[in-house]
Write a structure and sequence with these properties.
Number of helices: 9
CATH superfamily: Zn peptidases
Bound molecules: zinc ion
Mean pLDDT: 95
Number of strands: 10
Strand content: 15-25%
Strand order of the largest sheet: 1-2-4-3-7-10-8-9
Radius of gyration: 17 Å
Oligomer: single chain
Order of helices and strands: HHEEEHEHEEHEEHEHHEH
Distance between the termini: 28 Å
Largest sheet: 8 strands, mixed
CATH class: Alpha Beta
CATH topology: Aminopeptidase
Number of domains: 1
Helix content: 25-40%
Low-confidence stretches: none
CATH architecture: 3-Layer(aba) Sandwich
């Protein structure tokens, strides 16, 4: 199945971006692993495309791997597909893992970071509520669908996958200087567990990357206390097939270990009581 997945990403760029082929491959993974998997749809995008997910395992703790908020980041799609295949063969004990390989289906088909509703185009990973968000959230059906899904399923742990900058980071990533949370030690331990093979950089989101408001990773923690990590994978937005294979191989064990080692209940303390400083939102967003 890894070769089938890699064949989806044979050519970098727009030719790698066809959501129908991703759906066909998820269906193949499900067909090969009927005892451990189930296909489901988490919602319908503004373009009318069903957003597919694969449910893997049947344990009592529900966890999530979601990729491709940014439609051009097909390396993240590849890693999510690799995770789905690996977990379908050997589920995580005690868990039901939901893998969403592409959230931004419209952007994926156009090799475009952004996603459009009927009127305008939005960055899906700036479309969630958050402690420092001032504008309107949920302009997109995809982001609202995912937010509803983590609430309905009581998701406890979440990995959101992007490209590119080799780093795995934890909240807060919002526009503040008050970056610490009561869970920093636990989060740091989990990022280290997630990067034993990849040797990616770990740490606080804003310190390693840059502040951004309205992201999924911060929303999940802030709203629900989800153990939420952001994986910025690899070294390019346009990895060739060898680079895609390396990203899959380097990150599957760490993503599994993160899911295995995260607490089995949501964080009790997850509110934000610091000060928002939107002047910090100056750097160009790249990842
Ligand atoms: Zn991204």
């Amino acid at each position: 199945m890894l070769n089938t997945i890699l064949s989806l990403f044979l050519l970098a760029g727009p030719s790698a971006s066809n959501y129908d082929r991703i759906v066909t491959t998820i269906e193949q993974i499900a067909a090969q692993n009927p005892g451990t998997t189930k296909l489901l749809t988490i919602g319908i995008s503004d373009k009318g495309i069903p957003i597919q997910a694969l449910q893997i395992g049947n344990g009592p703790v529900n966890t999530l791997v979601v990729a491709t908020h940014h439609g051009n980041e097909y390396g993240s799609t590849a890693v999510a597909m690799g995770v789905a295949d690996a977990l379908a063969k050997k589920p995580v004990d005690g868990q039901t893992v939901f893998v969403v390989p592409v959230l931004n289906t419209g952007g994926y088909n156009q090799n475009n970071r952004y996603e459009s509703n009927l009127n305008s185009s939005f960055d899906p990973n700036r479309d969630y509520p958050g402690p420092c968000v001032s504008g309107q959230s949920y302009n997109l059906k995809s982001t609202k669908s995912l937010a509803d899904f983590i609430e309905q399923k009581n998701i406890v742990t979440s990995a959101t996958l992007h490209t590119f900058w080799p780093a795995v980071v934890y909240p807060w990533g919002i526009s503040t200087s008050d970056l610490s949370t009561p869970n920093d030690a636990q989060f740091l331990k989990l990022t280290k567990a997630a990067t034993e093979e990849s040797h990616y950089q770990v740490g606080n989101n804003t310190e390693v990357l840059y502040p951004a408001d309205g992201t999924f990773e911060d929303y999940a923690y802030w709203k629900h206390g989800v153990w939420s990590l952001l994986f910025e994978l690899g070294f390019s937005h346009t990895p060739d097939q060898t680079a895609v294979k390396n990203m899959i191989d380097a990150n599957i064990p760490g993503i599994r270990r993160f899911l295995e080692q995260a607490p089995t209940t949501r964080a009790a303390q997850h509110g934000f009581s610091g000060k928002c400083e939107t002047r910090l939102l100056q750097r160009m967003w790249l990842e």
